[in-house]
Specification:
Oligomer: single chain
Strand order of the largest sheet: 1-2
Shape: flat
Distance between the termini: 65 Å
Order of helices and strands: HHEHE
Number of helices: 3
Number of strands: 2
Largest sheet: 2 strands, antiparallel
Length: 96
């Protein structure tokens, strides 16, 4: 009637369907609680802020975005003759 592979696929499909239905209803309840729990600054017994607050105040890395702007020096040759573009760097910006 059914092969072992078809039965295994059916069982896996039913388990995935049940898990997705359960997560559909429980995720909106559980996730906000997890976010609030992880974002709170917890005080130590002596009143000082914990390690997570220290890491938020002084992050371990600096986010620097670099932008490079180029000028095409041969636009006519590139468009009409199909030549490779010759680029010259005009400015480079770094934003923190």
């Amino acid at each position: 009637m059914f092969t072992k592979g078809e039965i295994a696929s059916l069982i896996i499909g039913v388990v995935c369907l049940i898990a997705s239905i359960v997560m559909f209803f429980t995720f909106p309840i559980i996730y906000p609680q997890m976010v609030v729990k992880n974002l709170q600054f917890i005080q130590n017994n002596d009143g000082s802020l914990g390690y997570s607050a220290l890491k938020m105040a002084n992050p371990p890395m600096r986010n620097i975005m670099k932008f490079y702007f180029f000028n095409i020096t041969n636009p006519d040759e590139m468009v009409y003759e199909g030549a490779q573009p010759r680029l010259s760097e005009t400015k480079a910006y770094a934003v923190m």
